[in-house]
Write the structure tokens for this entry.
Amino acid sequence: MKVRILVSFKDSVLDPQGQTVMNALHTLGYGFVKNARQGKVFELEVEGLSREQAEAAIPELADKVLVNPIIEKFSWQVLET
Amino acid sequence: MKVRILVSFKDSVLDPQGQTVMNALHTLGYGFVKNARQGKVFELEVEGLSREQAEAAIPELADKVLVNPIIEKFSWQVLET
Amino acid sequence: MIDPKILADHNLTLEEYETIVRLIGREPNWTELGIFSVMWSEHCCYKSSKVHLRKLPTEGRQVIQGPGENAGIIDIGDGLAVVFKIESHNHPSFIEPFQGAATGVGGILRDIFTMGARPVALLDSLRFGPLGAGRNKAIMEGVVSGISSYGNSIGVPTVGGEVTFDPSYSLNPLVNVFCLGLARQDKIFYARAGQPGNQVLYVGSKTGRDGIHGATMASAEFGKETEHKRPNVQVGDPFKEKLLLEACLEVMDKNLIVGIQDMGAAGLTCSTTEVPAKSGLGLSFNLDLVPQREAGMTPYEIMLSESQERMLIVAEKGKVEEVRQVFAKWDLEAVVIGEITSGGRLVGTFGGRTEIDVPVEAVINRCPVYNRKFEPPARTAPRLDWESLPQPADLKAAFLRLLASPTIADKEWVFRQYDHMVQTNTILLPGADAAVLRIKGTAKAVAMTLDGNAAFAALDPRAGGRLAVAEACRNLACVGAAPIGVTNCLNFGNPEKPEVMWQFKEVIEGMAEACRAFGIPVTGGNVSFYNDTEGASILPTPVLGVVGLLEDAAKMVTPGFKAEGEVVVLLGRNGPELGGSEYLRAVHSREEGPCPGLDLSEEVKLQELCREASGRGLLRSAHDVSEGGLAVCLAECAFLGNRQIGCDLDFGEEMRTDALLFGESQSRIVITVRPDDLDKLLGLARKKHVPAVILGETGGTDLVFHHQDREAVRVPVAEAYRAWKEALPEAFLIK
Amino acid sequence: MKFGVVVFPGSNCDYDAYHVLHSVLKQDTVFLWHKDHNLQGADCVILPGGFSYGDYLRSGAIARFSPLMCEVAEFAERGGLVLGICNGFQILMEMGLLPGAMLRNKRLKFLCQFVHLRLEKEGTAFTRLGRRGQVLRLPIAHYEGNYYAPPETLEELEKGGQVVFRYSDREGRLSEEANVNGALNSIAGIINRRGNVLGLMPHPERASEAVFGSQDGRLIFESLIKSWP
Ligand SMILES: Nc1ncnc2c1ncn2[C@@H]1O[C@H](COP(=O)(O)OP(=O)(O)O)[C@@H](O)[C@H]1O
Ligand SMILES: [Mg+2]
């Protein structure tokens, strides 16, 4: 099964990268972009887990390894089974 | 309208970040992860664009600013309108 | 199977192909054709440059290893040696600035540690198009962050380099990276096979489809379509390389291996042929055993892949297990893929079939060598006609403009992004004439600089070659170091153009003459041809990397003024030479010659004097006069001390004031001495027959230049500093 | 006193710390391999700078799972002295031994330069030889040194006097400009409540010998040595 985990800064944490991206877009004439935020995406190939097991395992490993809860939040979804 | 753009290395390109993440997951006992790739995600607030205009503008700006087509690929979707 | 199209794709001529057929006694198969095409590419076999490179002096008492190995090696005493080399990564850095530059750093690092040396310093010489264009800015940002990310992560300080700008680099940036390593003389390793039966191990990253034909790409001219063709560029993994570095140095330190070769350009092909060829032996291996990142790779792809962070190691059977253990400690695999054989053939099997069977000698030593046609360009560079050049009414404004020109302006924006202190050896940080590293456990220090003035080389290639060597050595003399070895990177256009070939030949002959004058051996280098885009060539750009030694690190001299009330002395002679100067370009937008003259014997005397004076502790500061002339040199002296210190100086020469202040006459060094030491210094200068002119004193908060008792320029140091300091950051400010 | 310098595969300031402690300050010093489970009787553990695991994910994110880190955690629990420098500081936060996290520098560039630091807390095992308000000159070299902590945590830190160093100018004044990486409250170094675990972004080991123009880094190492009975 393939899962996707999206990690982004909490809204309370300001995101200078997103700012820079937006500035870059503006200087290139894409003024219609009013806000930009940048995050990370992980795509994992997972084998031998039932849907239920995944429901437990994925948030666990995300929390433990992929995300720093002090500054980041995450969401995840199953892409293919 | 809010759009999400996912950027990742092409499959044929080495992804050191994904590799190190996978190794870490393995040593932590998450052996069921068979492969891991890490990419970037951009979330843009877009104003005053029709759906059609977005269909044209978003891939263009992604190509121009967010992605290096030589080593990266991207996909995008509209989150809310 | 062979048609012109296939040969063209492989950058092989029909003649070359027929030679291949003759050498192997049959038509090569697809994989074998690939092998020959990369190994016979300009990048790998120097077919157009060899005949001229031979003219460079390579002999020297301290030379342990000259050209021909991964890097040159020079004896620095105490059982130690410095191992250094420079490499270009121009084309990849244009296509993908960040990764292109990063993998350039990775490549040169491997060249150094394959020889048993621990890399201790990186320098980078960068050339970009004018920063007015967003495209050039993006390239520069990408290149600088690529270098910083790789070097910082692996923990090798980037301690110096140069950055200059010219329109000819707009679609063809130059990224030349230099690395120096420190080795114990009894722990130096080469690409050797030992004897038949020795095991061949593959270590490091898995092989993927990266950068296939990178080597041939680096040997082909860019056309419009390159932008679309976009050859595959590799992604660097500095962490992997750090593991590889530590593991390799450990197996070497434990004497577990016979030979080792990195897989750079031409990857597995280069290493599996060079290693046996250097020992007159053969190598047979199984391609299926090569660790692969992707499924379904063909033998052709496996052999030509340029995946980074890989090495080939030869070890005796009995040692293989221990080698494996060391690599395992560093979380790396070491896989036996074959063994050394007698008979001099490279034999590779794939899926049980023999896929490769060629004589290594043919691949390595039979590459055709060309003495390409050369002739001077039809039109020679225009000569400056003084009448048509107005003296600026406001010399101060011209001065400030010059200080803010990107080529002269402060480069901290660049080197602040590099960790230049890690390993705690850097006793002279970026910003001075040369970088200086102490050598722990000795009193010595090693000094390094990269220099090359393409504007001069464009006006007069031969002079440009001589001037580059002279300036580099002068930069070393300023810090008190004696030059001990030279490496060089020659960046030129398409060698099939006779005028480019002429520039190349002239530059080399100029360099050779200068190296002889200084008595320094060239221990290696790199040639980058085909720096053409849409038919236009870059300026001929020789970049000299010169390494020097200070027997006593405590005697090091730095460029900044040290205190008020010290005497400012000019060693050397001012001449009215504005040709090829930054002043002409930045203030008058004119590119005219002739470039400054150079008397090598005077230059040598000047540098000896500077070293002797610093050796005797007479010098408080020393800085050479280069781009921007005297005025800029003196401003930098005022900026670079622990605090800013002005000076009030008087110049007597009969000449135009702008020529005096901004001319780039060679063989000049500005020094300061304590009043009590002045007579000793002047005496020494007389003894050495070097002109020494007292210009005035340090002190105050202004830079004041009088010319023939008229005040020509007065500017607060702080104001000049701002112009110089803020130019680059300004250019990159996102508004 | 015995110092142990932890070596992760991607550490690159491990030798620098070792050099200062062993060769300059003549202390009994050993390297501690991250895969071992043994602190070799070290009285003070140093987590050196570098890129412990490449740090592609987050600085220090993976290092905290190294076998030796269990021992280091227990050691800290028992009140053992732990000094985290740069990447070591990031690891200590990932381990939860110190609060907060590091964001990218405000201008999104790696910064290698000398900075001035105002000593905020004297009398700790790491600052015994210093005075409050004293200004030190040390180099920084990092991309992620922009200290962040949620408001309540930050308040605790300040109330509890756990901020040990702040970026300042040479007179010890705080300013936007002096705060080169954008850290909250100009924080450059913090200590845990118990006072035995210090994390700081600047590199004292790069300023502990005369040849480097500043020896202010010695203050920290020599304080440690002094504080040992
Ligand atoms: N790309 C770079 N990387 C690191 N340091 C650099 C770079 N470019 C310039 N510098 C540093 O800036 C200083 C000025 O460079 P340059 O004007 O070329 O010196 P010089 O003219 O004496 O050779 C030197 O100390 C050099 O090391
Ligand atoms: Mg100079």
